[in-house]
Write a structure and sequence with these properties.
Elements lengths: L4 E6 L9 H9 L2 E6 L2 H10 L6 E4 L15 H12 L8 E5 L2 H4 L4 H5 L4 E3 L3 H15 L3 H8 L1 H7 L4 H14 L8 H21 L17 H8 L9 E3 L6 H13 L15 H9 L4 H23 L3 H6 L1 E3 L9 E9 L5 E5 L4 E5 L1 H6 L7 E6 L5 E6 L1
Parallel strand pairs: 1-2, 1-3, 3-4, 4-5
Antiparallel strand pairs: 6-7, 8-9, 8-11, 9-10, 11-12
């Protein structure tokens, strides 16, 4: 898996056909150029996506904003000032590429003041050197090192809101020792939001029932969603799935994340200070390692789900496994199963709970309903392991 570098590129001619060769040359080296024609739009987008970009490439002369009519030095000056202003949030290596002789062949006040070299876009060797330098300086950035070390995860996170990527970068920085001070309230909420996004994706491809993501209109019930994808009956929504999507370890990870972060139902803000278990834990163990462990579990869940969703993307087939749960007047659940055996004494048996529990069928019911091996029946089970209220289907 090759390394990728996402570069903010400000050039009023970034989409000109003559720039296509440069963009292709960059892309072959894993450098993805995201072009903007002016300072205002480019840096507004950068400000909202700081952890997406690894470096900044500037033309010498470009538009200051979308309403500017002529290119000038103001855009370059404003860009450099903004880059310095952002240092408290993130340090970006930045470069200047131009074909203007006033920048490439003469001394220039802006370049000298910022100790910058201007690479000549008309000189193939300069362009080659620029691309090499972009990679070399970007590789020194901690955030990019994190993304490259965990490339599969961050490629998957491109399909999630930007906040998901920011959350994991912050956590990896903590693991590297840069910042070990985390607010449980903030980051537990962020983990739940990422999990909610995963469940919405599961619903979009038919793996998760609509009822699980339409609680009170549009809320995701995390606990019910986990039960459904684990092949278990939901507690309140009266739906289940005949196929178990979550393997046991994935299901355990998801349940642990949900219950430890205090999200018994959905992702509305949960006050961690009211969680007596967390507060008792914090009195004895006030470290970020609980958060790290949950985040690492969620990473595995995200990677597993990405692969599983790609292999099970037939919406119609996925929805065919959805089942409604019916109850009798006493609140006993109706089961549906095939007769697996009719014994010599006339009693029969069926298997429920993913074939883990055997239920007996009274020989009188076998005779009266003319039941044979392979017949499908509907029934309830009370306290015993005997089928009741039997209907032959």
């Amino acid at each position: 898996m090759s390394k990728t570098y996402n570069i903010l590129w400000i050039d009023d001619e970034y989409d000109h056909p003559e720039m296509e060769t440069f963009m292709i040359q960059a892309e072959t080296l894993g450098i993805i150029l995201h072009g903007f024609s002016n300072f205002k739009e480019g840096f507004a987008y950068l400000n909202d996506n700081l952890n997406h970009y690894d470096a900044i490439l500037l033309d010498a002369l470009f538009l200051e904003n979308e309403n500017s009519e002529t290119v000038n030095k103001k855009g370059l000056g404003a860009s450099i000032a903004k880059i310095h202003e952002l240092k408290s949030k993130k340090v970006f290596p930045f470069f200047v590429l131009s074909g203007q002789p006033t920048f490439t062949e003469k001394e220039n006040d802006i370049l000298e003041a910022n100790n910058l070299k201007c690479y000549n876009k008309k000189n193939p060797e300069d362009v080659k050197e620029l691309l090499h330098d972009i990679k070399a300086e970007s590789d020194m950035q901690t955030d990019l090192q994190i993304k490259h070390e965990n490339q599969l995860l961050f490629e998957i996170l491109n399909e999630y809101p930007n906040s998901a990527r920011d959350t994991f970068i912050a956590i990896f920085r903590g693991l590297k020792g840069f910042d070990n001070h985390f607010d449980d309230q903030l980051y537990f909420t962020q983990l739940r939001i990422i999990l909610e996004t995963l469940f919405r994706k599961a619903n979009a491809c038919g793996l998760l029932h609509d009822k699980c993501v339409q609680v009170n209109g549009n809320q995701v019930n995390l606990t019910e969603s986990c039960l459904f994808l684990s092949g278990q009956d939901t507690n309140h929504l009266k739906v289940t799935c005949s196929v178990t999507h979550f393997p046991k370890l994935i299901a355990n990870n998801v349940k642990n994340i949900i219950h430890t972060t205090g999200a018994a139902s959905h992702t509305s803000v949960v006050d961690i200070t009211e969680n007596i278990h967390i507060q008792a834990y914090r009195r004895d163990v006030n470290t970020p390692y609980l958060l790290y462990s949950l985040a690492l579990q969620l990473m595995d869940v995200l990677i597993w789900f990405h692969k599983y969703m790609k292999s099970n993307n037939n919406i119609a087939i996925n929805k065919s496994y959805w089942q409604d749960i019916e109850y009798d007047g006493n609140g006993n659940k109706f089961e549906t199963a095939k007769i697996v055996n009719v014994a010599a004494n006339g009693w029969a048996s069926v298997l429920i709970n993913n074939s883990t529990k055997s239920i007996s069928v009274y020989k009188g019911d076998v005779t009266n309903l003319n039941l044979n091996t392979g017949d499908l029946i509907k029934f309830t089970v009370k306290d015993s392991s005997q089928a009741q209220n039997i209907t032959k289907l």
